[in-house]
Design brief:
24 helices, 6 domains, extended, four-stranded antiparallel sheet, Chitinase A, domain 3
Length: 715
């Protein structure tokens, strides 16, 4: 009571404090919103002086993600949209500079090229008719946003305008590249050189002293030498800004006790059991899995997966369980057993011999709302059934009329084969269609409803009969219990508290936690090796407030937590010496080994060198410059280039090659026979240039473009 009295006495003071707190919160939120509003209005990028508006770009990302049907993450879709946007803006700057655009007549030609094969746009003579195209577009616009079909695909006016835009973009792009290609040619001099590179030949003898003849342990490489090597080849070692991390993962995984509890729960379902019903105030018998008469209801009540009423072959069972399940008698139960992240309990419902394939023919009558029904379908479900029943009655009297009735079928694919479909039992057909085709005898005729409509099906033939099984399976996912999840969270929290005052790696080692390193994460990366998509971690690592040594906890997509420590902040420029040493160190060692080998060789002839180094003299015949490969040694362009600079019979100085030090003696020089004309070779050179121009030109334009990329602010 004393506390309450004090609160009452100071109520005015408390009200003022609370009001001030709320006011500061609101004011802070206003300023935050002002800042975010400013950011929201800014461009997501600027490419060659043209802004990429945020909202427009995000719409493109959403469209790509939607079109992928969930196969792309938001970041993957964003990167795809970015590549498209960069290409569009870079190329558009070229079109604008040249004054290139798609005018009306050119657009008509482009549409004819793309749509000339469509029957909808052909006249009686089978030729493309521009008037039919114009009529189609006008009608499509008039019925918008309704859809129609074109070439078997559903289309609306919006998708048509997108198609036209893509055609126009493709057309102006093709015009641009054609202009560039028109200025590309292979000269006669280039043709002659290319011919000689391929047809000038030398035969040679050589000695190879492999770099492996000098042990790595004898070569010392200083850090300064690695740095110097990296500076010699800056392009090879240039990197974007990146971050290095280490992390400890706390997975929410089922414990042994959790798994044992799941098994016990499944085992308890097998037999009948007595349970007290409070509502009835009486003990009731609950029928178990073994004695239930309704397997479907029982499975659907207790299983993560619904009951499957289809027969299956033995091959459909997991290999380690196939013999045990297929060996069950009707009514017998096997399990619990572990399979693919579940504990399962399987009951043999029925055994039957069924064919492994079927050959049928059908006539399909769809109805409004049925799968793949287009805008031309107007029948209700009742009307579709009436039509199918009528067809059935006609065929029951006279099956020879089947082909003549195919015009009533909407399955245009099977219609081309007289309505015939041949398929294996394991094929993914509508369950009702499959059940009728395999569970009825050859010659059967019937009407079957599926999600696609009403089918009139005649069974023409069946394959080899095999033993099949109808199995009722109860599946329960192997998941951690609430207690286990709580324990994981507790361990994660303890670790966070401990590393606040101690070394991250030391605390992890004391608790037997695995510390996993991740190097060179880029600003727009999404995946963390070992963790999957974890964009939040990347954003945190690149936040201006994050410094080396900072750590933070995150939820993982797989379930659980991860504590991440930022161990490296790498700026744009040359990569770290440690990272660069992975490739620099072997090359430096090769250079040093080459000097050691050269210094120890005083011999001048191949025989003397081979004897001194314990090597054999090898030969290579008809070597050319276009394919600088030595038989027995691999690709060695410097060695072969040196050989072509020697006269017949001459021996080279020692050469530092890719895989060792070489001495070469030319035994024969065969000059290519002169041609009366090198035009054919020049044409080949020109064609090779043309084939490469699209990719090389765009890459060059992209490298030269001024691109300000702000994506990391929004993603």
């Amino acid at each position: 009571m004393a506390v309450l009295n004090k609160i009452r006495q100071r109520s005015i003071f408390l009200i003022i404090v609370i009001a001030l707190a709320l006011f500061s919160f609101v004011i802070g939120d206003i300023f935050t919103n002002l800042g975010s509003s400013s950011a929201a209005d800014s461009a997501i990028a600027t490419i060659n002086g043209v802004d990429v508006e945020r909202n427009e770009f995000m719409n493109k990302v959403e469209n790509i993600q939607r079109q992928s049907n969930g196969s792309m993450t938001n970041t993957q879709a964003m990167n795809r949209a970015w590549d498209n946007e960069v290409r569009a803006k870079v190329m558009q700057s070229q079109y604008d500079a040249l004054g290139l655009s798609v005018e009306r007549d050119y657009m008509r030609n482009l549409l004819e090229q793309n749509l000339g094969s469509f029957e909808e746009f052909k006249n009686e003579a089978g030729l493309f008719d521009q008037d039919k195209l114009n009529e189609f577009i006008a009608n499509l616009k008039a019925i918008a946003p309704e859809t129609t079909t074109l070439g078997g695909s559903v289309i609306d006016y919006k998708s048509w305008t997108n198609f036209e835009q893509n055609v126009a973009i493709s057309g102006v792009q093709q015009a641009y590249f054609n202009m560039v290609k028109s200025g590309i040619t292979g000269t006669l001099t280039e043709g002659e050189l290319d011919y000689q590179l391929e047809n000038d030949k030398v035969d040679l003898k050589y000695v190879q002293i492999p770099y492996s003849s000098v042990a790595d342990s004898t070569i010392s490489v200083k850090t300064s030498e690695i740095k110097a090597y990296m500076k010699r080849f800056p392009k090879k070692y240039e990197v974007e800004a990146s971050r290095d991390l280490v992390f400890v993962e706390f997975k929410e995984e089922a414990s042994l006790a959790d798994e044992q509890a799941i098994q016990a729960d499944l085992s308890a379902l097998v037999a009948d059991r007595e349970e007290f019903n409070e509502a009835a105030n009486a003990t009731q018998t609950i029928v178990g899995f073994k004695n239930t008469k309704d397997n479907a209801e029982f499975v659907n009540s207790y299983s993560a997966d619904n009951y499957n009423d289809n027969y299956v072959f033995k091959s459909s069972f997991a290999s380690d369980q196939a013999d045990k399940i297929s060996g069950l008698a009707e009514g017998e139960i096997y399990g619990p057993y572990k399979e693919s992240g579940f504990y399962k309990l399987s009951k043999m419902v029925s055994l039957k011999r069924i064919p492994d394939s079927a050959k049928v023919r059908h006539i399909l009558t769809p109805f409004v709302g049925s799968t793949r029904a287009d805008a031309s379908v107007t029948k209700t479900e009742a009307e579709a059934k009436t039509t199918a029943d009528s067809i059935y009655k006609v065929l029951k009297r006279n099956r020879s009329k089947f082909k003549s009735l195919l015009s009533l079928s909407s399955d245009k694919v099977s219609n081309e084969k007289d309505g015939v479909i041949e398929f294996a039992y394991t094929a993914g057909f509508a369950p009702e269609f499959k059940a009728y085709s395999f569970e009825n005898p050859k010659g059967s005729l019937g009407v079957v409803r599926t999600d696609f409509g009403y089918h009139v099906i005649e069974i023409l033939g069946q394959g080899t009969f095999q033993q099949a099984y109808k199995v009722a399976t109860i599946s329960q996912a192997i998941e951690p219990s609430v207690e286990t999840v709580d324990e994981v969270f507790k361990n994660k929290s303890k670790f966070e508290i401990a590393v606040a005052d101690a070394d991250f790696e030391t605390v992890a080692a004391e608790n037997n936690y695995e510390v996993r390193p991740v190097s060179s994460i880029k600003e727009l990366d999404e995946n963390i090796p070992g963790l999957g998509a974890q964009r939040a971690i990347v954003r945190w690592a690149f936040d201006d407030s994050a410094s080396e040594g900072d750590f933070k906890s995150f939820n993982t997509t797989a379930g659980g937590f991860v504590v991440v420590k930022l161990t490296g902040v790498n700026t744009v420029g040359l990569m770290s010496t440690e990272s660069g040493s992975v490739t620099a160190l072997p090359e430096i060692r090769k250079e040093k080994k080459a000097e050691i080998i050269k210094d120890r060789i005083s011999a001048t002839t191949l025989d003397e060198i081979a004897t001194a180094e314990g090597q054999t003299i090898k030969t290579a015949v008809a070597v050319n410059m276009k394919n600088p490969t030595l038989s027995g040694a691999g690709r060695e362009p410097l060695v072969i280039g040196t050989a072509f600079g020697l006269a017949e019979g001459a021996t080279s100085e020692l050469i530092s090659g890719n895989s060792g030090v070489y001495a070469v003696q030319v035994t024969k020089v065969t000059a290519a026979a002169a041609l009366p004309s090198y035009q054919a070779a020049a044409n080949r050179v020109g064609k090779a240039k043309e084939n490469a121009v699209n990719t090389q030109l765009y890459n060059a334009l992209k490298d030269a473009a001024e691109i300000e990329d702000n994506r990391a602010v929004f993603y």
